[in-house]
Amino acid sequence: MTTPQFSTTPVAWDDALLLDLKPMDDDHQEIVALLAEVVRADDDYLMPRWSALIAGMQRHFDEEDRWMQDTGFAADNCHSSQHKIILQILREGEARGHNGQHDVVRQMAYELGVWLPHHVEAMDSSLVIHLRSVGFDPVTRTVPNGYQATTESIHGCGGSTCGDTATATAGEVTPA
Ligand SMILES: [Fe+2]
Ligand SMILES: [Fe+2]
């Protein structure tokens, strides 16, 4: 067994990450727990834990993407695009990990722990503000009667800028 090179994740759950939207907060806590399992895993269990993390993130990103599309966002809005890029990078890590490059996976896990709070605080919090402003119910995926999505799809992040900060933080999770 190999001792993990990165023995601690920079993201332990912190209630400061709560956004007061239960389905989203529950998912974020689950992702942090899955990430912690990756960080703690020895080499025998690293890749199964990494795959479980990717599956959890895919489920969560799909849900946020659906909420955005339910409330007027374009399919290729910058928040959804960032989800797609991150999953693509993590899957590249999965392929390299299966080729024995566990150090790449461990490096990605570390960087993901840095990226995640930035994403929650920048993009997800803006999404929550947007969903609240239109009265969206994320469980039933409904908006109040009379709500009209704008005729023009939203390409940004729904209330905040999505330029340099989002791009820079996404760029931190890069294959070694
Ligand atoms: Fe999220
Ligand atoms: Fe997100």
CATH class division: Mainly Alpha
Tally of structural domains:
1
Strand content: under 5%
Q: Could you state the order of secondary-structure elements as H and E?
A: HHHHH
The separation of the N and C termini measures 22 Å
Cα Rg: 17 Å
CATH topology: Four Helix Bundle (Hemerythrin (Met), subunit A)
The total of helices stands at: 5
Bound molecules: fe (ii) ion
Would you identify the regions where 5 or more consecutive residues have pLDDT less than 50? 3-7, 163-176
Query: Which secondary-structure class do the elements indicate?
Result: mainly alpha
Give the overall shape, derived from the CA principal axes: elongated
The major sheet is characterized as:
none
What labels would you give this structure?
mainly alpha, Four Helix Bundle (Hemerythrin (Met), subunit A), disordered N terminus, binds fe (ii) ion
What does this molecule look like?
With 176 residues, the protein is mostly helical. It has one domain: Four Helix Bundle (Hemerythrin (Met), subunit A). 62% of the residues lie in helices and 0% in strands. The chain has 5 helices and no strands. α4 packs antiparallel against α5. It is elongated and about 55 Å long.
